[in-house]
Amino acid sequence: MASGSRDFTVKIFDYSKASAKKAFKTINETEHVEDVAFHPSGSHLLVGVRHPVIRMYDVNTTQCFTGSVPRHQHLDFITGLDWSNDGRLYASASMDGAIKVWDGVSSHCISTYIKAHDGVEVCSVKFTRNGKYILSSGKDSLIKLWELSTNRCLIAYTGAGATGKQEYHSQAVFNHTEDFVMFPDEATTSLCCWDSRNASRKQLLSLGHNGAVRFITHSPTEAAFLTCSDDFRARFWVKR
Known about the structure:
There is one protein chain. By secondary structure, this protein is mostly beta strands. The protein is built from no helices and 22 strands.
């Protein structure tokens, strides 16, 4: 497991060892760490910080690599990262309002979606399991599904955050079957859920938090997800 912090460090933990509670490697960065993402093989780690350049670390040696073409980089700091399941591609989101898709071997940018969310910050990116689509969320409270082969937005999921401008970053995720898209509504601290194929919105689910939900992640194998909030609580949800 890897974690990033505002103390400018990335810490890596090994759960196969008895000393798992203590990081066995620490990577020192120059800015606040915003997001991290493991390569599917676990050999490399993408790190996004409050800087436009994406870092890629060799997990064993902690050697750092960056893209060799400066103009390919974002114009503002990184907010989200994700690898495709086969490791051939990775995607990044940024404060500059763009989504970029990168070659996983050369780290060359192969696609850029400028003003992906009408120019506001893009908060998260997530590949589908087949690697053909990317799900993104932005501070416009919209979630969009992008088709990589055509570089266009196929579906926009609307109806969240209608009461005002979104203040904090939050993530859009798929459930474990990818039949539904899930996103926490900041204003009401409830969960918005859509049918991933036709964008019909389901009934809101109260998440029971007393503050904005800052993070959500869903299990890849079962109907269960975790939410973390400004109320200093994490809540684990599971369908019995």
